[in-house]
Amino acid sequence: MNVSSANVTVSDWEADSFSKALTKNVIVVVLGISINYINAGLIHTFRKHQIFYTNPRYILFIHLVVNDMTQVTLTIILFVISYTIYKLNVSICCTFILLALFTTENTPLNLACMACYIAICVPLRHMQICTVKRTLMLIGLIWTTSMLSVLPDLFITLATEPLDFFHSRVFCLRQTVFPNPLIIKKRDLTYTVFLVIVWLVIFYTYFRILFTAKTASKDAKKARNTILLHGFQLLLCMATYTTPLLKDALRQWFPKNYTDSLFATYIIVQILPRSISPIIYGVRDNTFRKYLKRYLLCKVSIS
To answer: Which residue numbers delimit the G-protein coupled receptors family 1 profile domain (predicted)?
Structure first.
């Protein structure tokens, strides 16, 4: 996943007037604050009620929320920096990019795991398989997979670039801090593997639920709808796999409005998917909605 879509929109920042640049930054910051505020409410609700942190389904969900909050915050910081500071020390930029890549790659993996949980545990009720301990191990596996995918970029760069490179200042993009051509080939291969595996999981879980016994038809119907929402969210998240190809296409299709089209792509690919999770669990889920409403009403009454 190319996190550079967060700030590549301004790699040709001179093309933007001051008013346009200010508008873009205000839009990004307002959207980020709004999403993080809602997600903070979800985290508070989760933390206050034991019913959630003893349920593997909600543990996976809150991990996704915390991960997405981190990802949104990091990409917005990179976006604003690219308009203000413009260039960063390579070591600092590398830290930002690595953390953003970890959290970006975690999202589709977490969604795939949640789909598996819904398929195995919701209508079929195999609760002996879906335990809190195994859920925590699964979250550890998600992070391990993301790190194994991303850290080779750092190791290759450390092995091929001179020490002075890490003390220089660059425009903070993935390709500027990890410039080796081998990294690009590795990235494309990794994205292809991730794309195939995650979508196979989504299709498997959907059809598994589709053919569930009629005795669980009500739960199966709700689970199917949730899987479809996860599929839509996943489709948006995994559009980042195609970012390099998409950027080339946008440059050819909209040469005069390239930065504007990339900005729109950033909103759709990076920001919009992170606003869907609260809808799936904060609004559609009866249990979470009940406690979240109680928390919000209490807060309003106190105010």
So the answer is: 38-281
> To which H or E segment does residue 89 belong?
strand 87-89
Please check the confidence at residue 177 and state whether its pLDDT lies above 80: yes
d(CA 64, CA 106): 8
Q: 256 vs 65, which has greater pLDDT?
A: 65
pTM of the complete model beyond 0.85: no
In a domain, 168, yes or no: yes
Residue 212 φ then ψ, to 5°: -70, 155
Total tally of structural domains belonging to the chain: 1
Instruction: Determine, yes or no, domain membership for 303.
Output: no
Residue 11 binned pLDDT confidence (cut-offs 50, 70, 90)? very low
Q: Does some domain include residue 68?
A: yes
Query: Domain range spanning residue 252?
Result: 18-119+127-289
DSSP string computed for 104-172: HHHHHHHHHHHHHHHHHHTTT--TTTS-HHHHHHHHHHHHHHHHHHHHHHHHHHHHHS-GGGGGSEEE-
CATH number of the domain enclosing 224: 1.20.1070.10
Give dist(CA 202, CA 195) in Å, integer.
11
